[in-house]
Design brief:
single chain, six-stranded antiparallel sheet, 2 domains, Jelly Rolls, 23% strand
């Protein structure tokens, strides 16, 4: 028996007449690429040392103590030049005692590794938080790996307690320069190329379905999903001017209450809050678009609701996973949970709105039901 794959929507013709529908093939390829991506990034060793480990605090541990009357913070800062290093890993051992969490997210203890650009300005728009500490924490090891952005000349290691009280114990602090293992970047480019090709095939299939066969539902959903996918995987430098402009003018984290160096922590917290708010808005919109595409002018039901929810969940997972390829973007389980929750919320809101609209139409005089 011969099967042929055609990139066109399934019609009332039989499978033997039309060939294997494109949708199952595209879904299967997506699952295969997802497995290969996770295997590549988490099943293979990615980094190797690119130089000797730089050890700080050779004179012994440091204790930072702050009281509630401090106007700024208790802190220690160490600046280390970056000489052509592609990645750095920060390793530290810290403990906390009685650090009270303030009214704002940034009012606590933390260790950050901020990249320094030309001219000495701090790259707060890039990932830099190693750990946040509050309450009582026994001594334990923390580590975080960061990609060095083009134009970064140094890295600033800062341990601090911000606008609150407590004690922070910094027992060890190390910086490890890293490079990717030979062949890892090549494998990443190959898999990324496959993802790009798949995105083009899906776009071609959706648009061809809508234009030639008057099936506008997939095109409507893709109209919202494609920009969301692009914004999810765009490099941090691409959206940095927009994010910084919004963060400086829309104060969610209480930057107006901060002064001195604490204002930098408030700005980075504001960037974080805005990024998560963007996640919620974006994936709620995608979920609503999927629900509308499936349910519009149909009788809402559990099957269509769960189909839309499943599509939205898969989209959110894939969008977050693809950040593994994007410079200075970080994929996290926290972001996955935000994507899933906001996407499900968007599906639920759209489904309820369509159901209410359907009942209102049926209740009108002269309605055929």
């Amino acid at each position: 028996m011969r099967f042929r794959v055609c990139l066109q929507p399934m019609t009332t013709s039989s499978v033997a007449d039309r060939g294997l529908p494109a949708a199952p093939v595209l879904i299967g390829v997506t699952l295969l690429l997802a497995c290969l991506t996770l295997l590549h990034f988490h099943g293979l060793p990615r980094f190797q040392a690119a130089g000797p480990t730089i050890v700080f605090l050779e004179d012994g541990p440091i204790t930072l103590e702050a009281s509630d009357g401090d106007t700024d913070a208790a802190r220690i800062e160490i600046t280390q030049p970056l000489d052509g290093v592609a990645f750095v890993r920060v390793e530290a051992r810290l403990a906390a005692q009685g650090i009270a969490r303030g009214a704002r997210r940034w009012q606590q203890g933390r260790l950050v590794a901020i990249q320094v650009g030309r001219g000495g300005h701090l790259r707060l728009d890039l990932p830099h938080v190693v750990v946040r500490l509050s309450g009582d924490r026994n001594a334990r090891d923390y580590r975080a790996t960061f990609r060095v952005a083009p134009g970064s000349t140094a890295i600033l290691l800062r341990a601090e307690i911000l606008r609150t009280e407590g004690i922070l114990f910094l027992e060890t602090l190390r910086l490890v320069p890293l490079a990717e293992m030979p062949g890892f970047a090549g494998g990443s480019m190959f898999i990324l190329g496959c993802w790009v090709l798949l995105a083009l095939l899906i776009s071609f299939w959706v648009l061809r379905s809508g234009v030639l066969h008057q099936r506008l539902r997939p095109a409507f959903a893709w109209l919202f999903a494609a920009p969301a996918l692009f914004l999810s995987v765009a490099p941090a430098a691409f959206t940095s001017p927009l994010r910084m402009g919004v963060a400086r003018n829309l104060d969610i984290a209480g930057m107006a209450d901060a002064s001195g160096r604490a204002s930098e922590a408030a700005l980075s917290s504001n960037l974080f809050s805005l990024a998560k708010a963007g996640h919620v808005l974006m994936f709620a919109t995608v979920g609503a678009a999927f629900a509308i595409a499936l349910i519009w002018r149909r009788q809402p039901g559990c099957r269509l609701f769960w189909t839309a929810t499943g599509l939205t969940a898969c989209f959110g997972l894939v969008a977050e996973m693809l950040q593994l390829f994007s410079p200075n973007r970080t994929a996290s389980l926290f972001d996955v949970s935000i994507n899933l929750a906001s996407g499900t919320g968007g599906v639920l809101i759209a489904t309820l709105a369509l159901q209410i609209g359907s009942r209102l139409r049926q209740s009108r005089p002269g309605s055929t039901g």
